[in-house]
Specification:
This protein has strands at residues 2-4, 9-15, 19-20, 23-24, 28-34, 40-46, 55-60, 66-71, 76-81, 90-94, 103-108, 120-125, 135-141, 145-151, 160-165, 181-186, 199-206, 211-215, 224-229, 232-239, 246-253, 267-272, 278-284, 290-295, 319-324, 330-336, 345-350, 356-362, 370-377, 382-388, 404-409, 414-420. It has no helices and 32 strands. Helices cover 0% and strands 46% of the residues.
Length: 428
């Protein structure tokens, strides 16, 4: 069905998907926030204007460069960066200057074919009005800077900016193995934000580092980092105190090592099964066709907060289960309990052959049996996801506890919001 708002046509449709083994799939309503957003690549959710409602921030992967935000609930688009940055590739939001408003860390000047220059990292601050583009302030440059995340890696209550370039300086096709990528961390200056941001190198061992995620993996009050690269999935954990702080690197999964020019893991997220057993979901290999679930080794048991096993040679890798091998250039992945049954579902998006979004549901508690259903095909060449509960209710002003998600489409030039309708399902 097609409905019209007071300002613009917004296409709404419901994706009704029912049987998934013994479990019902979530169902969603798609709202087109923008159908003219060139090169839609990354998307985040944050309250930009401070009105208590979650807004959407989208980044376009184009030479001209475009970052914009959409105001909830009208979804009117406002500029963040139109022509002040170029070749944008990722962004991360945080109150950088502790002024009570969100700023944006931005990675731009991205050129995959040039691994020796570019990679500008900046922070953007709003102007006097949210109607105008934001001011751009340079932090540093790291060639092929590709992913940015904020994380409190030392547990001191202050977040650091982590940058993952996709290539090492000088790495070239077809295997990109001449130089590893540098995983780096920046600390916000305590007084003068125009001063040089202290920079630390976390690791220099991985190649084609495509994924970077933040989680408290071991429940110690510090954020850990998960990376997906040609070498698979790795966990980086800052351990110790003061002068004794050291980064510990643990390989969790090897990914798909059958290829030469594309191998390992490309996207990564963490989910939980009923009972709390943890799993890692990935898209394998790089820009790959597989949706994969990894389960902890038997030696680690099922405790959801169990720390990872100590480093071994060779490491004890998680058990690999391939759920699907039909994606065309898989590029978006998220995990959440969309149907509120106590287990997380996996949603995967791909950008090739018209694009699409698939959803996977565990049919038992072992994590080895899953069912797949089509959420959307050909209408969005999915490149990025962000999960959030957008729906206010009379019972919970923070949402209905059924997660929704936002997606960006590259070749399809769009931004979609998928509202979760599962909570409205009639009682049986």
């Amino acid at each position: 069905m097609i409905l019209k708002t007071h300002l613009e046509a917004v296409i709404l449709f419901a994706c009704f998907v029912f049987a998934c083994g013994a479990v019902e799939m979530p169902r969603f309503q798609r709202i087109v926030l923008d159908d003219n957003f060139p090169g839609g690549y990354q998307v985040k959710v944050a309250d930009i204007d401070g009105d208590g409602k979650p807004d959407v921030v989208a980044l376009g992967e184009t030479a001209a460069g475009q970052v914009a935000w959409y105001k909830n609930p009208t979804w009117k688009r406002y500029p963040i960066s139109i022509d002040r940055t170029k070749n944008n590739i990722d962004l991360a939001l945080h109150d950088i200057d502790a002024g009570g408003e969100l700023e944006i860390a931005l990675a731009s000047d991205f050129q995959f074919g040039d691994s020796t220059s570019g990679g500008t990292i900046s922070w953007l601050k709003r102007g006097k009005s949210l109607e105008e583009p934001w001011e751009v302030h340079r932090i540093d440059a790291e060639p092929t800077a590709h992913r940015l995340r904020w994380a409190d890696v030392d547990g001191d209550g202050r977040k650091e900016l982590v940058c993952a370039p996709i290539l090492g300086p000088g790495a070239k096709a077809p295997q990109y193995d001449q130089v590893p990528a540098r995983l780096v961390l920046y600390r916000i200056p305590k007084s003068d934000l125009s001063a040089a941001w202290p920079k630390e190198i976390i690791d220099e061992t991985l190649h084609v580092m495509h994924a970077l995620e933040v989680c408290n993996f071991d429940g110690d009050g510090r954020d850990e980092l998960l990376t997906g690269s040609f070498e698979g999935a790795h966990l980086f954990d800052l351990q110790g105190e003061g002068e004794n702080e050291r980064w510990k690197k643990i390989q969790l999964c090897a990914g798909d090592q059958s290829g030469k020019s594309a191998r390992g893991s490309s996207e990564i997220c963490i989910g939980h099964l009923r009972g709390g057993r943890r799993f890692i979901a990935t898209i394998d290999p790089w820009h790959g066709n597989q949706v994969v679930v990894y389960l902890p080794p038997a030696s680690q048991g099922a405790d959801k907060e169990l720390p990872p096993a100590p480093e071994q040679n060779p490491p004890t890798l998680w058990q690999r289960h391939v759920l699907d091998e039909t994606l065309s250039q898989g590029h978006a992945l998220c995990c959440a309990d969309f149907n509120h049954d106590g287990a997380d579902e996996i949603i995967a998006g791909f950008r090739g052959k018209g694009g699409g979004i698939y959803i996977y549901c565990a049919t038992d508690d072992s994590g080895t049996r899953w069912e797949k259903s089509i959420l959307n095909e050909r209408e969005i060449a999915a490149q990025g996801f962000s999960v959030f509960d957008f729906d206010p209710t009379d019972f919970s002003p923070k949402g209905d506890r059924y997660p929704d998600f936002v997606a960006t489409g590259g070749a399809t030039h769009n931004v979609h919001l998928y509202l979760n309708l599962t909570s409205a399902r009639p009682t049986r």
